[in-house]
């Protein structure tokens, strides 16, 4: 009840301050009821601050995915339901009807080939943002590693088609270390010329979109990160309020988190 009360009372822009501890709890808690409480907290934020939490979807998906493989049945089932709620925050008409299948693939990797086949027939026209990639990239990474050449080829085609709809290199940058090695390995090893050609097209596209130069993946620019904003805040305030900043570190971090959330939202608006 206390967890839900806090989640219900928290300012939506403070999600960024609250979630690191919640995600750490899901990952490392020794007692399963603690993980359940953390998942409850996320569910509550989805209801009270959906707009703000939508920006945290790329952070949440990997953590909740891990919980879907928890050894405790209750945690697995709860995490699955939370993942369904998180994915409701993803705005992309091209994949929205496939979201249930994409979630199933996280819990059951054996579904990957079938889901890749389904997505392979899709025409992508909607601009692709980070939340969409956060859900799709784990599937595509597994698809590129499948034994069947046809699945490797279709995965490469999906990567190619989706990444053409990414406007900002910073959006795709966090996912390049996951996608590029699989594509490069397939390009080097596939015997089928047509499959190799499709893989080369996908590599060329993500190299161009991701602004990869000489094989070097650029660093992700995180202007809204708490540490970045906190540093700027201290630069501005230290001359007059250094003593206060030392005494009130958690308050400064909380302010930085809220400012970081607003920076994330503003950058998204500017990109549109």
Automatic annotation (TrEMBL):
Q: Which Gene3D superfamilies match?
A: 1.20.1390.20, Leucine-rich Repeat Variant
Transmembrane stretches in the record are none
Tell me which domain of life the UniProt entry assigns to the organism this sequence originates from: Eukaryota
Please name the GO terms that the record assigns under molecular function: protein kinase regulator activity
For this record, an example GO cellular component is: cytosol
Q: Which GO terms describe its biological process?
A: cellular response to amino acid starvation; regulation of translation
Q: Which UniProt keywords apply?
A: Repeat
Q: Whereabouts are the HEAT repeats?
A: 60-98
Q: Where does the Elongation factor 3 four helical bundle domain start and stop, copy by copy? A: 224-271
Record bears the keyword Repeat: yes
Query: Could you tell me what this protein is called?
Result: Elongation factor 3 four helical bundle domain-containing protein
Which source organism?
Photinus pyralis
């Amino acid at each position: 009840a206390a967890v839900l009360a806090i989640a219900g009372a928290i300012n939506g822009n403070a999600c960024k301050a609250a979630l690191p501890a919640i995600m750490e709890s899901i990952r490392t808690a020794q007692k399963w009821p603690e993980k359940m409480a953390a998942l409850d907290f996320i569910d509550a934020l989805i209801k009270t601050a959906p707009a703000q939490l939508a920006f945290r979807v790329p952070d949440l998906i990997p953590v909740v995915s891990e919980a879907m493989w928890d050894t405790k049945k209750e945690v697995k089932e709860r995490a699955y339901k939370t993942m369904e709620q998180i994915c409701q925050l993803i705005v992309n008409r091209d994949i929205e009807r496939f979201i249930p299948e994409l979630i199933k693939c996280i819990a059951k990797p054996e579904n990957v080939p079938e889901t890749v086949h389904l997505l392979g027939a899709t025409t992508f026209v909607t601009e692709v943002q980070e939340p969409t990639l956060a859900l799709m990239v784990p599937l595509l990474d597994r698809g590129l590693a499948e034994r069947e050449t046809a699945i490797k080829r279709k995965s490469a085609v999906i990567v190619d088609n989706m990444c053409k709809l990414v406007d900002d290199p910073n959006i795709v940058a966090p996912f390049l270390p996951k996608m590029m090695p699989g594509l490069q390995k397939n390009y080097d090893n596939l015997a089928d010329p047509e499959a190799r050609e499709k893989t080369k097209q996908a590599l060329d596209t993500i190299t161009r979109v991701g602004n990869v130069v000489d094989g070097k993946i650029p660093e992700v620019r995180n202007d809204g990160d708490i540490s970045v904003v906190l540093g700027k805040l201290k630069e501005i305030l230290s001359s007059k309020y250094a003593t206060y900043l030392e005494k009130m570190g958690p308050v400064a971090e909380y302010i930085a988190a809220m400012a970081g959330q607003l920076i994330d939202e503003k950058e998204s608006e500017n990109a549109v």
